[in-house]
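Progress report, Aim 2. The chain analyzed during this reporting quarter is listed below.
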Amino acid sequence: MHSIPELSQLFNHYLQEQHFNRKPISLYEPVSYILGLGGKHLRPQLVMMSAELFGRNPAEVLPQSFAVELFHNFSLIHDDIMDEAPIRRGKETVHKKYNRNTAILSGDVMLVYAYEYLLKNNPPSPGSLVSVFNQTAIEVCEGQQLDLEFESLIPSAEAYIEMITLKTAVLLGGALRIGAIMGGASESDAHHIYEFGKNTGIAFQLLDDILDTFGNAEEFGKRIGGDIIQNKKTILLLGALQRANREQAAELHSWLSRSNDETGKIAAVKNIFIDTGAESYARDLLNTYHQKASEALHAVQMAPEKKEVLTAFADLMLRRTR
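Predicted structure tokens for the chain:
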């Protein structure tokens, strides 16, 4: 099995060889721009890991890996438009650098190209590949719509889990399932490896929520408490709202309405998260989904040592301080 750095190098080389030189240039230049912004490329690596796990040379599934990366970046372009985000990976977002209409069209053409790459080189079970890809894409759109709706209401913690599952986690699972199909896996093994990816994705998002409030700034890579300042509806906030008594709820809502004392707000809301048990609740949820991921990987019918690259992947995503 190739290591994660080896798969990353393999994919990056393939990525650099893909060119979108058709006309009009104004449509395709934004495609090259967002693909050149970098990123960890975890999703295409998962396609390659999974295919190799079931006996396929990862170099043979590079087109399918690129298809997943195209879809991911298509969704980022549209997400940034909806969020009116100015920055992506430290650079201007596509709609800011170019314009909104061009960004929409460039994202659309990326989605079309994703299907072309998905079906390159006469893959096995092309109908199954398209079916998995379509189901994943539908669920990502459903998750994004839920996220938009949550801007104007306070969802339950359970609804939040559903949203992050659809918006984020299913694409990790879908990437692994596509790789499994390319490797000729049984339906049972393809299902279990999908569940591994999905549950790892949920655990990762929960960890991200937790670390934004309880992490170390140097390890986390950004300011601690940013979600609190923005009143972001994380698992911690939603868990606290569900568990707070009357006094705690009143204090929490009071802080949510303030914007003039960021340091005080972070400290006070953090204490409410602890006192209501929201922190413990979030950490228990994280461990639950991490355990579900481990059980799903264990159920894949092959020698444990062959699965070590996926165990390393999960550790990479979840190894930050919990």
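The CA atoms of residues 67 and 113 lie 7 Å apart. The mean pLDDT is 94. These observations will guide the mutagenesis work planned for the next reporting period.
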